[in-house]
Design a protein that fits this description.
Keywords: Methyltransferase, Transferase. InterPro entries: RNA_MeTrfase_RsmD, SAM-dependent_MTases_sf. This is 16S rRNA (Guanine(966)-N(2))-methyltransferase RsmD. Its EC number is 2.1.1.171. This protein has helices at 26-38, 56-63, 76-89, 100-104, 124-135; strands at 2-3, 13-14, 46-50, 68-72, 94-96, 111-116, 139-150, 162-170, 173-180. By secondary structure, the chain is α/β, with parallel strands linked by helices. The chain has a 7-stranded mixed beta sheet, covered by helices on one side. A two-stranded antiparallel ribbon has the order 1-2. The longest helix has 14 residues, at 76-89.
């Protein structure tokens, strides 16, 4: 069973797709959002959840007071399930049933927080291209980008304009936190 950890919908259950996604565990989400709240990038933030899967990360952000949450998920059944979860939790989010690359090719909507939990089989070069696109107008100057992957995965190749802020390992999960470079 997957639940929202804290906030307005804290403790309430999420339905998850039967296959094709691996929802971030409650323990990892609790630690991840503790770090993000310490950084001050959740409450009233504009959040972009890429590779949303079950929607657990974006819905957690909405429950914790994010002003706007956009969840991008290419699998239509998963996107439909995210919509149903949001409705049952009474969380106002936008679900975009599209490939991340397609969505980021559109006009930028700058975010304070970008959450990326790509499929483990997404290769490093594809992730680098997504991060490059994200750094090209999709982030506020004080934004934080989080990439969650297997702890055996190498650090993402940060594009020009993004630098590593922190790295945390939670069991079998590793999260990298990055931020836009300060203007020269």
């Amino acid at each position: 069973m997957t639940r929202i950890v804290a906030g307005a919908a804290g403790g309430r259950t999420l339905q998850v797709p039967r296959s094709g996604t691996r929802p971030t565990s409650e323990r990892v989400r609790e630690a991840l959002f503790s770090r993000l709240e310490h950084l001050g990038v959740v409450r009233d933030a504009e959040v972009l959840d890429l590779y949303a899967g079950s929607g657990a990360l974006g819905l957690e952000a909405a429950s914790r007071g994010a002003a706007r949450v956009i969840l991008v998920e290419s699998a239509r059944p998963a996107a439909g399930l995210i919509r149903r979860n949001a409705a049952s939790l009474e969380l106002d989010v936008e679900v975009v049933p599209a490939r991340v690359e397609t969505y980021l090719a559109g006009p930028p909507r700058p975010s304070h927080l970008a959450l990326l939990d790509p499929p483990y089989d997404l290769d490093d070069a594809a992730l680098a291209r997504v991060l490059e696109r994200l750094a090209a107008g999709w982030l506020h100057p004080d934004a934080v980008v989080v990439v969650e992957r297997s702890r055996r995965s190498p650090e993402p190749a940060w594009p020009a304009g993004l630098s590593l802020l922190d790295e945390r390992t939670y069991g079998d999960t590793r999260a990298w936190f990055a931020e836009p470079d300060a203007p020269a």
